[in-house]
Write a structure and sequence with these properties.
CATH topology of the domain at 381-464 and 476-608 in chain B: Immunoglobulin-like
Protein name (chain A): Copper resistance protein B
Helix content of chain A: under 10%
Number of strands of chain A: 13
Largest interface: A-B, 38 and 50 residues
Largest sheet of chain A: 12 strands, antiparallel, barrel
Structural class of chain A: mainly beta
Oligomer: heterodimer
CATH architecture of the domain at 381-464 and 476-608 in chain B: Sandwich
Largest sheet of chain B: 6 strands, mixed
Shape of chain A: globular
Number of strands of chain B: 31
Helix content of chain B: 10-25%
Distance between the termini of chain B: 48 Å
CATH class of the domain at 381-464 and 476-608 in chain B: Mainly Beta
Radius of gyration of chain A: 20 Å
Pfam families (chain A): CopB
Structural class of chain B: alpha+beta
Strand content of chain A: over 45%
Strand content of chain B: 25-35%
Pfam family, one (chain B): Cu-oxidase_2
Order of helices and strands of chain A: HEEEEEEEEEEEEHE
Number of helices of chain A: 2
Shape of chain B: globular
Keywords (chain A): Signal
InterPro entries (chain B): Cu-oxidase-like_N, Cu-oxidase_2nd, Cu-oxidase_C, Cu-oxidase_fam, Cu-R_CopA, Cu_oxidase_Cu_BS, Cupredoxin, CuRO_1_CopA
Distance between the termini of chain A: 35 Å
Chain lengths: ~260, ~600
């Protein structure tokens, strides 16, 4: 594990360093001081897929985010991904469920293989337990247009966990869309500090109704149901927390 | 000439422009809302209006404030207007075109469709290094052809900013048709967005500009028409491929204002004529991304030239003009009648419009736009299903019901009613059975089709998506017949096949699956060889493929009268071929003329040596 993080980091640095040089010579006899007839463009994008206020039936209100940004070309990209929330009124600072720096490579028309390092813990303070992890993932679009994010994490303690997220958009009108969403988490070992049990941890299913004011800005409302299973549920019960919850959300999807 | 009696402005716009420049104003933006050649009285061959007449022409490129559709904009201008001036040359001249770059970035001008020495072709990095800021580059070349052409920047995305204009070459000998007056109709698509931002939107968010996607309502409408099973299967197939059957145009009217001679539909540019005149319309699609369907309700148009080259007259009601193509049509308008020149975009999201009338201020009705068509299975068959065997293809065609009639099929393709290719079913089968169809063709000893024969898998009998051949007589590629056979009568010595490829999700476009940045060498043509270039469109978009420096003789089945073109529209799933005489030594650009497709990698260099 200890060797993994520096290696991945080195991989990312190497990728970034080689990106602008990803110019093939076309081999025709243009003098070397002539420009390439077609420039390669490196682009960047930052997306808040969810930036929402959550009102659960049982748990505490929270401000939650699901953020993704990338920089790069068509094949090689660097990603920064983060999910987390700030539970309101608990006197604690916001928490990163995940903050990941990934190298991403397009391996198929619709799929990117991603790998890098992650952090879980407090955003600014020591209010929350912290850990670092290595992550491998597959991000893309399944047949029928289901946006998918699969990830396998190995923590600095050697704990292995995995998650899968799926999202689908259904056009009701040109701007109004309905978006079912699901998130499933599993773990190979128990990590009580993080409320993680062995086996199936939790399932979360949500439905959002959004309106694209512009393609870049879409406010939405939604509802969700989530349930914890097995050891994970036991840990929650021991802490006096609910193991099943429903709630409503209101938020905005936006990108820059 | 009926033109002679007309005295127009005492001082032409061009003279005003020149005066402005002389007074040190630098730009005549405020004075010039449209290029001076776009005079309502048009042009006659003896009296060119507001044109930059050759053989010597000076052009200055600037970026300046100039209103477009009444809104403030900053297009690239050429001698103070955007689109740029009409350049008028004469066949047999030695043209001297001096281009001065007054921008703060490099620029260039490519003379689209002209046969000229490789160093004069104007593609930075292929023909020359480009024109640096403050620099003047002098293009010199003998003019060896005549007809309707155009010119545009070949640097980055500059073309999107209005860096384009018409280029007309008067014939040395009399042309095979007569007319009294001519008008240039230059179609362009303008966006108030930064072109780089358009490119980024295409790259980062699929369908960004498409506000005609299928919705749940379309599903129910189709279900009522075709039944649940057929509809669900059809939609399922598209969904499975992660594609949209409404992906007709990448960039739409949600950002574009479509201009005709620099004027928006509301501004309504007017082309005037006098009683009894026969008018030649030189139609140029100088758009970055937009295909147009052009018609003049109430008026038959006779197509007399395609891509600047004379063709045998074809009377039509409508013609589709791919990006970068030009068509010359003759019309004979009636007295005291106003006509709308209506250029509807292929995705039906917008239109460009002008009026043809005897007086300014006269208008005619603007036709209703058609509704966007869904792509049918000819596009689907092309994409990702090449490995599919014949039997599967048939199942797909039948969409689950064996007794499905031809008409039902059409409706599935055409989202209910309008805009369907009538014969798409037939051609689809055709495309799916290339191996079989070719057996019916006679072949040469070397196993190749004879020169001029249409490739199996071509759909030259169809205008394409969204055209209902029953509604009106629409020009199709099969109609195009050269006026006389082109000089090189040799059979092709070899065939070269190139696939048009793409990844819609990432907006990557390429030839043979490789973007320009990924290829390792140019495409080689043997000097003076006669070769057949076969283009196979594996994508579900149309691509206007443009070869610089040499003609492509489109093998549309017209034998020795195949037409020659500089830009070939290849429809989704189609397989077409062209004969090329590789007589132009040097390096030449070869690319898709959709600007953002080219910039995304659909570009190659052809080396003739």
């Amino acid at each position: 594990m200890n060797i993994r993080i520096p290696m991945t980091t080195a991989g990312i640095l190497l990728a970034v360093a080689t990106l602008p040089a990803a110019h093939a010579e076309d081999g025709y006899d243009a003098p070397s001081d002539w420009p390439s007839p077609m420039a390669e463009h490196l682009l960047a994008m930052a997306l808040f897929d969810r930036l929402e206020y959550t009102l659960p039936d049982e748990g505490e209100k929270a401000l939650a985010w699901d953020f993704k940004a990338w920089y790069g070309g068509d094949i090689n990209r660097v990603y920064l991904k983060s999910e987390g929330d700030n539970v309101q009124g608990d006197g604690e600072d916001a928490e990163f469920e995940s903050l990941e720096l990934l190298y991403s490579r397009l391996i198929d028309d619709f799929w990117e293989l991603q790998g890098g390092i992650g952090y879980q813990g407090g955003v600014f303070s020591d209010d929350h337990a912290e850990r670092a992890y290595g992550v491998m993932g597959l991000q893309g679009v399944m047949p029928y247009g289901i946006e998918t994010d699969l990830a396998l994490q190995v923590s600095d303690e050697g704990d292995v966990s995995a998650s899968v997220e799926g999202e689908y958009s259904l056009h009701l009108t040109q701007r109004l869309y309905l978006q079912p969403r699901t998130e499933i988490a599993v773990a190979a070992s128990e990590v009580e500090e993080f409320g993680v049990g062995k086996g199936l941890n939790s399932v979360r299913v949500g439905l959002r109704l959004g309106y694209e004011v512009t393609r870049r800005f879409a406010p939405y409302v939604g509802a969700y149901w989530e349930k914890q299973y097995g050891d994970t549920a036991d840990i929650s019960r021991a802490d006096g927390d609910a193991t099943e919850d429903t709630g409503v959300v209101a938020g905005v999807r936006m990108w820059f | 000439m009926p033109r002679s009696g007309v005295i127009h402005h005492p001082l032409s716009r061009r003279q005003i422009l020149k005066g402005g420049a002389a007074l040190g104003l630098g730009s005549a933006a405020a004075l010039s809302m449209r290029p001076s050649w776009a005079d309502p009285w048009g042009q006659t061959s003896v009296y060119a209006k507001g044109a930059e007449e050759g053989p010597e022409v000076s052009l200055a490129i600037r970026r300046e404030a100039l209103p477009i559709d009444g809104q403030s904009a900053r297009p690239l201008t050429i001698n103070g207007t955007s689109p740029g001036p009409l350049i008028r040359l004469r066949e047999g001249q030695d043209a001297v075109l001096k281009v001065t770059n007054l921008l703060d970035e490099p620029t260039s001008i490519h003379w689209h469709g002209l046969i000229l020495p490789p160093g004069m072709d104007g593609v930075p990095g292929v023909s020359f290094p480009g024109i640096e800021p403050g620099e003047t580059f002098t293009y010199r070349f003998p003019v060896r052809q005549n007809g309707t052409y155009w010119y545009h920047s070949h640097s980055g995305l500059q073309e999107q900013l209005g860096h384009a204009g018409p280029l007309i070459i008067d014939a040395a000998k009399r042309e095979p048709f007569r007319f009294d007056r001519e008008h240039v109709l230059l179609l362009t698509d303008w966006t108030f967005e930064d072109p780089m931002s358009v490119f980024r939107n295409l790259k980062t968010a699929e369908g960004y500009y498409n506000f005609q996607e299928r919705t749940i309502a379309d599903f129910f409408a189709d279900m009522r028409q075709n039944g649940f099973t057929a509809t669900a299967e059809m939609r399922g197939m598209w969904a499975k491929m992660r594609m949209s059957s409404r992906d007709i145009a990448d960039v739409t009217s949600s950002t574009y204002t479509y201009l005709l001679n620099g004027q928006s539909p509301e501004e309504n540019w007017t082309a005037l004529f006098k009683s009894g005149e026969r008018i030649r319309l030189r139609v140029i699609n100088g758009s970055a991304m937009s295909y147009f369907d052009v018609r003049i309700p109430g008026l038959k148009m006779t197509v007399v030239a395609a891509d600047g080259q004379p063709v045998q007259p074809v009377p039509v009601d409508e013609f589709r003009i791919a990006v970068a193509e030009t068509y010359d049509v003759l019309v004979a308008p009636e007295d005291n009648t106003a006509y709308t020149i209506f250029a509807e975009t292929m995705d039906r999201s917008g239109y460009a419009r002008a009026t043809l009338a005897q007086r300014e201020g006269m208008v005619a009705e603007i036709p209703e736009r058609r509704i966007i068509a869904d792509r049918g299975m000819e596009a689907m068959g092309a994409h990702g299903m090449q490995g599919m065997d014949h039997g599967d293809m048939q199942d797909m065609n039948g969409a689950g019901s064996d007794d499905m009639a031809h008409g039902d099929m059409q409706e599935m393709n055409g989202a209910g009613s309008n805009g369907t290719d009538h014969s798409s079913m037939a051609s689809m089968n055709h495309a799916g059975m290339q191996g079989m169809a070719s057996e019916q063709q006679s072949m040469n000893d070397n196993g190749m089709l004879p020169a001029g024969a249409a490739q199996p898998g071509s759909r030259f009998g169809q205008a394409g998506i969204g055209i209902d051949p029953q509604a009106r007589r629409t020009l199709v590629y099969r109609d195009l017949k050269a006026f006389t056979p082109w000089p090189d009568r040799r059979e092709p010595g070899r065939e070269m096949e190139l696939h048009l490829t793409g990844n819609m999700e990432r907006y990557m476009w390429s030839f043979d699956g490789k973007k320009f940045s990924e290829v390792t060498g140019p495409i080689h043509f043997e000097k003076d060889e006669r070769l057949r270039l076969i283009l196979v469109n594996d994508t579900m978009m149309e691509h206007p493929i443009h070869l610089h420096g040499m003609w492509m003789e489109l093998e549309n089945g017209q034998g020795e009268l195949i037409p020659r073109k500089h830009t070939l529209n290849v429809k989704p799933g189609e397989r077409v071929s062209a004969l090329i005489t590789a007589d132009a030594e040097g390096s030449w650009a070869f690319h898709c003329h959709l600007l953002y497709h080219m910039d995304a990698g659909m570009f190659r260099v052809v080396k003739v040596a």
